[in-house]
Amino acid sequence: MRDSNKAEIITLEDIKLLVDSFYAKVRKDEMLGPIFEGIISDRWPAHLDKMYRFWQTILLEERSYQGSPFAPHAQLPIAGPHFDRWLFLFTQTVDENFEGLIAEEAKWRAEKMAEMFRFKIDYFKNQSSQALS
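Above: the chain sequence. Below: its structure as tokens.
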């Protein structure tokens, strides 16, 4: 049964609602907010625009993003609990606003991205600590 308050993700405006709602939560979050504010500072409009293009490319298959999403995260002071919190807030945001196949795809993609970033960051931290020993 369809919930009339929820839409499917089908347009760039839907992507913007997802991204804006999600990052509003992130910025207020006790765990994630200080990390994002410390890195992004006054460059939020540029960051949000990049995230619109990223998710538009991933979910709508409209090629508007170019780049490597992992590189900016490689040296951040983050670990497992940060990814868990990020994924919780993302999933919550999707579920509050959207339904349908692309909404499910968004949650699956976010889960896989968090998993991959977590693995890569752990790998690089372990390589660094082994190089120092």
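The two ends are 58 Å apart (CA to CA).
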